[in-house]
Amino acid sequence: MTTVTSSEAAFTPLRFHGGYPPLEDVGLIGDGTTAALVARDGAVVWLCVPRFDSEPLFCSLLDVKTGGAFRIAPEGLTEARQRYEPDTGVLVTELRSPTGVVRVTDCLTLRSGADLGEDTAAGRGELLRSVVVLHGRVRLQVALEPRGGATAQPHGQGLRIRAALRPDLDLRLVATVALDGLRTTVDLEDGEQAHFILRWAGGGHRRDFRPPALLQATLDGWRRWMRTLVYDGPQEPVVRRSIVTLKMLDYNETGALVAAPTSSLPEAIGGVRNWDYRYAWVRDAAFSVYAFRRVGLHAEARGFLSWVLDAIERDGSPRVLYTLDGLRPPPEREDPQLEGYRRSSPVRWGNAAADQRQHDAYGEILDCAYQWVAAGGELGPSVWHRLSALVEEARVAWDQPDHGIWEVRTATRPFTYSAAMCQVALDRGARLAERLGLPGDVAGWRTDAQRIQAAILDLAWDPGQGSFTEHLGPGGLDASLLALPLRRVVDARHPRMIATVEAIVRRLGAGHGLLYRYLPEESADGLPGHEGAFLLCSFWLVDNLAAQGRLEEAMALYESLCERAGTLGLLPEEIDPSTGAFLGNHPQAFSHVGVVSSGMNLARALRERG
Question: How far are the Cα atoms of 14, 322, 369 from residue 329, in angstroms, in the given order?
Fold first, then answer.
């Protein structure tokens, strides 16, 4: 009999809050088309098929009673642990009962030989769950419970399933053990295995059922893609995991990147700040592409730029966010049938921010194009025609009110960050035209970029507060100001920037290096209640400290933030400062971008210091 070894991490008791797992105890798997979340008790608590923004098949993360899940666990489960196979999107969960221990290996499978950097259809449209008994004997309980219920009929090696709320799906569950229906109990002894594959979108018609080969092809696909990674800096394991996580949020077919794979995970338990993040924000995707490019993964940068320019060509001007196909998302709606994570309602599908005005998109796109060219990419005449039109739009929009980077649901205001990103659009447009000999008002763009920069230094400075403010004019303090040096709008060592960093730490600090984005009582956002500390802002603080020469402080803060990722290396949108618990949609692209970008910045600063 083959000896099966277990992972080294300690088993710990399972934790629940009213039946809901802590987000820290949930792992991600993905295939470049969709993603699933697997809790530490062996339940798949989130899966939208066939792609990220589809209606969920399982969403017990938003309603433990009616959301549905795919559960595999030994009877009498008491403790568990999770880990990833290194450099892959393959998750391992080990479950202990009084009689034995089982390992469940989960993945969304990849085609044999698939190239995650180039293939538009690397995924096979199936979830593989492989079980092996590490020692002892267990009574394995298997339950497939789609949201809204389902019926099943025997079919080949398994079942043909009709989900009540997803009749569009051709669902098949195939297994190496006999299935009694949607609920099955299997007795397994030391070393024995059982494999389950849930297929959709026609995948059930395939006759091949070779679970070990499917798992190996998936492991090989991930590791082949990661071989091109170039990183030599602090916290390498967390950085590598962040890159895999970002790739699991990349929709291969079009090059779009979702902000997070989930919807409506609350920014405060019991609060209403619950949003659908399963779409592609120009801003978030541009940040993600920046992270990919910096570690040598250029195909993703090329795919995103092509996607966003095609989307703009269809609309005539950039939207805030798009569907994975580059279209307008569906109208935002509330779902009264789901109680929300830990009873935090409402649950929302769609996102009304799609109709907002956010002028920073101009700079995000032009900066992405600039990075692409700096890495050896080319811009054809038609692409430049679209880009130069965006530069001209930024020239006009920079001091006009918008909804800002944080998408406030109040009247528009002239946000400093938005003005700064219009400056970036003009600056990068001028640099691109000059470098490549492209047509455009290079001198005029450069002059206007300088004028906007001067206006920010003047109009956004509040002598009374001793810092820049969120507006071009009086306003509250906003942690997005930390991004000004990162986009080369204001030097990190400028006295006013140094003062602003100190003011943000002092007034927006939530303790232990965590920062709030802003204070709602000073910067109205149109919503009741508060939210947690926003992780990306703390990574921006790391970058500012490093750029100011405060390298030891920057490194200490960076390490403390990476430690929050836990054993799985995943980070949410926000952290509850009082408990350290994860909040918001999870895992969040923004947070993992911070891990990668700050790691690269620290590595460079360490090399320069010698």
Answer: 37, 6, 25
